[in-house]
Amino acid sequence: MKLEQIETPAALIDVARMQKNIARMQAKMNTLGVAFRPHVKTTKCLDVVRAQIAAGARGITVSTLKEAEAFFAAGIGDILYAVSMVPAKLPRALALRRQGCDLKLVVDNPTAAAAIAAFGDQHGESFEVSIEVDTDGHRSGIQPEQQTLLDVGRILHENGVKVGGVMTHAGSSYELNTPEALAALAEQERAGCVRAAERLREAGIACPAVSVGSTPTALAARYLEGATEVRAGVYVLFDLVMHNVGVCMLDDIALSVLTTVIGHQEDKGWAILDAGWMALSRDRSTSRQSHDFGYGQPCLLNGTLLPGYVISGANQEHGILAAARGDPQADAQIEDITQHFPIGMKLRILPNHACATGAQFPEYHAVAPDGSSVEWQRFYGW
Amino acid sequence: MKLEQIETPAALIDVARMQKNIARMQAKMNTLGVAFRPHVKTTKCLDVVRAQIAAGARGITVSTLKEAEAFFAAGIGDILYAVSMVPAKLPRALALRRQGCDLKLVVDNPTAAAAIAAFGDQHGESFEVSIEVDTDGHRSGIQPEQQTLLDVGRILHENGVKVGGVMTHAGSSYELNTPEALAALAEQERAGCVRAAERLREAGIACPAVSVGSTPTALAARYLEGATEVRAGVYVLFDLVMHNVGVCMLDDIALSVLTTVIGHQEDKGWAILDAGWMALSRDRSTSRQSHDFGYGQPCLLNGTLLPGYVISGANQEHGILAAARGDPQADAQIEDITQHFPIGMKLRILPNHACATGAQFPEYHAVAPDGSSVEWQRFYGW
């Protein structure tokens, strides 16, 4: 199908950009000498994940058991479920392992560790579990120097659970925007995770995997000594948040929302689009960054940026395209809004956050350089 | 299935509250002497819509052609597609009408009006179109006194398209929070839409339907003389935004997200939940209102509010439950966070915006007063 024929709103993936992003990350990981385990929560799309694996990824990271089930059913067996496990979810994890899936779990507390050990013992299953380490204080995990780290390690180790390793995610990297700060956080992430592994080893607990990563720290890391693998997700498509963090250019962003002009408010200088927040998502993460992109950056259908314009507002199925504040070129064109953006005109919008925007769609339209496209299914739910 | 058995995260509908909300709105419309046409974009769920129709609703309002197709396939024929039409979507609208669906379209500009007339002429189909009126400046529509109103009316009327009426949506009602301001906006919405109808009639164009509404203005309206029907959507479930607007109590909110405690950061007083923004949505609309509820209001599994706590942050699959700032009772309990919210504990979170949160889930769990539940499917996409 040609771009002009796709019904709007629709989620487009520029396949050439995606392949460039995949190649860039994989080359970086190869240079650093670590394995790469992409986080597939960004796309939940088998076509994308197959491209990541074809480029050299070893195994995948998932954020839900539904992702684990879907990708295992498609033949991908090496899966890290990177959200701290709770007892009620163990039956689904067990079912996957019984089917032959090399599903690895994560915990960051003694209660869950003991529950996994007891459940495994009860069902004759030897789970493999990584311990989540907190290297930047932004969310979950045990700090490298905490006693709890060894407590959890011993509960697992002494009760028949294989300690697969340690893992961390320096998600506070999204709040930074200089190469120096990102490199420093990448080193903090690496050093903290390696230190946790060393403490476990000193306590007599094998700790083979040392898994770190976020898109910004992965791309900023200068060396990863002691780490065995890196995880990252959003790099595959990139987005405006990553642009503001400084790890991609606007023309690296592979995801856009195709939309149609459906109306105008001439006196306000608005064009009304059929992409509201249901298509763009409610993600406004760039509002806290150096450049606030509203609900997204408009482009022409051919991808040419419209730097003087912004998606200034969104209702469920209506988006408002307006002049970016203070842009003299765009201001001068306000009176011509109906001429510049006539009814039926198609535009593309670069999203703030590719993970959130993609999740609003049942499928991507994967667009080739010649403008032809095919549908790539994605899924949602838990 | 019992509440305790539902896997998390999950979207729960309290059926008794939903039925109360439906009955309240329908009773109000009956008193005002207008037909009620619920906007089904909030739930996209046939079970909910059947309950609205059983209570007296006449026809439905949809925000996408996919909703129109799905509900028509389920036997609902009287459908208003309340987003301004563009030429590229006419073939899908035609297909629905050819199957017998009484699909009504909306336009607010001469270009689209002419395109509908030409397309209808070409295909021998007499479309019915309502003209969208702008009564509060928040989005789409033609102001009642604008010449464009008559231009659009004439283009339709003189080219074989039935003018079904006028319709408006005073969406700026979401920004208000007093009964007086809401009643004044409801009157502005009514008066503006009735005025637009009168102008069309004076120009010799029949204008049978005068359709107004938003949840706040529908509930605040004191009289609706001249209006023939009201549309509203979120009232069926309500949410924290509507609570802040002042049109529902917290215990009217029928939607909640079921979640499990998966970890802690004791020194920060955090409990980590398995409901992140993928479950709660990125909607932070209460941040601009009198009471900022973060990513939602936590409750115990039985629905008891936890007023000292808030969902203070969210990543894709992680939510952070923390003490609401300045709450002395909750502050005193920070050290006991692991005791108050142990690993595996289930909680419910009232959402900021029911339309956005529901859209994150493939199904609702409809919970009866005895705690038993059934699954109600919902759909997404366009």
The most extensive contact between chains is:
A-B, 60 and 60 residues
Average pLDDT rating of chain A: 96
* β-strand amount of chain A: 15-25%
- If you consult CATH, what is the topology of the largest domain in chain A? TIM Barrel
CATH architectural category of the largest domain in chain A: Alpha-Beta Barrel
Under CATH at level 1, the class of the largest domain in chain A stands as Alpha Beta
Shape of chain A: elongated
The CATH superfamily of the largest domain in chain A appears as Alanine racemase
How does this structure look, described?
The structure is a homodimer of 382-residue chains. Chain A is an alpha/beta fold. Chain A folds into two domains: 15-236, Alanine racemase (TIM Barrel, Alpha-Beta Barrel); 250-376, Lyase, Ornithine Decarboxylase, Chain A, domain 1, CATH 2.40.37.20. The first copy, chain A, contains 13 helices and 17 strands. Chain A has helices at residues 15-32, 46-54, 65-73, 90-98, 110-123, 147-157, 179-202, 215-220, 240-245, 277-280, 328-333, 337-340, 354-358, and strands at 10-14, 35-36, 60-62, 78-81, 102-107, 128-133, 162-168, 209-212, 229-230, 255-265, 270-273, 297-300, 309-314, 319-323, 346-350, 363-367, 373-377. In chain A, strands 1, 10, 11, 12, 13, 14, 15, 16 and 17 form a nine-stranded mixed beta sheet that branches. In chain A, strand 7 (162-168), helix 7 and strand 8 (209-212) form a beta-alpha-beta unit. In chain A, helix 5 (110-123) runs parallel beside helix 6. Chain A starts with 9 loop residues before the first strand and ends in a 5-residue tail after the last strand.
